[in-house]
Amino acid sequence: MKKNIVFTISRQYGSGGRTVGKMLADELGIHYYDKELMKLAAEESGINESLFVQADENVDDKNPLLVRVMKNVYQGELISPKSDDFVSRENLFNYQAKVLKKLAETESCVIIGRCADFVLKDYDNVVSVFVHAPKDFLMEQAAKKQSYRDKELEKFIEKTDRYKADYYHYHTGQLWTDARNYDLCLNSGRLGFDKCVEEIKAYSKVRFGDDIFD
């Protein structure tokens, strides 16, 4: 590739956003970052990886209504190791964001979730994508990985997406499903995974030039 491009992918549970991201990374021969980001953030900060795993795309849901109005919008700062807040969820996010910025500055890659579209919004080499799908498609795809069925599966999908939405709002102050946060919003239920990949590549060529992937 003639330019480092970072593809950030947010996704509804069951939409196949991870699959689309992996297919895109494999086709372009670039790195795919998902759970590995937590390990990188742990190495960067010296904070135990288990704390990053615990906070991954999640916020405390003991009081869901309170969580939905709370926010601590990421500003780019890091909290000192001397502070009692060094291992707070805010600082865990800060270190994860630091890793995202390093990646955007050094390589082409695909990044799944972690509010990467917001953290990297000022980088001109970032393509942000939101993958969504109709309910029936979400249910069909989710059933391939979960033992839940019918109403239980529907509730699981809703709960998982609520966690993502709350996490996104808490750290960005914005709505996770707002199309204005992304360059592309793709309906995987209608397009299928292969065509989602093609749409992302087509957009990149329009934006960066037809020879960007040469």
Question: Which helices and strands appear, and what pairs or packs with what?
Answer:
Elements: E1 6-11, H1 17-28, E2 31-33, H2 36-45, H3 49-55, H4 64-69, H5 89-106, E3 109-112, H6 116-119, E4 126-132, H7 135-142, H8 150-172, E5 184-187, H9 188-191, H10 193-208
Parallel strand pairs: 1-3, 1-4, 2-3, 4-5
Helix pairs in contact: 1-10, 2-5
Gist?
With 214 residues, the protein is an alpha/beta fold.
Describe the model.
Helix 1 crosses helix 10 and helix 2 crosses helix 5. This protein has 10 helices and 5 strands. The mean pLDDT is 92. It has one domain: 3-Layer(aba) Sandwich (Rossmann fold), CATH 3.40.50.300. Strands 2-3-1-4-5 form a 5-stranded parallel β-sheet, sandwiched between helices. With 214 residues, the chain is of the alpha/beta class.
Short descriptors:
10 helices; 214 residues; Rossmann fold; single chain; 11% strand; globular
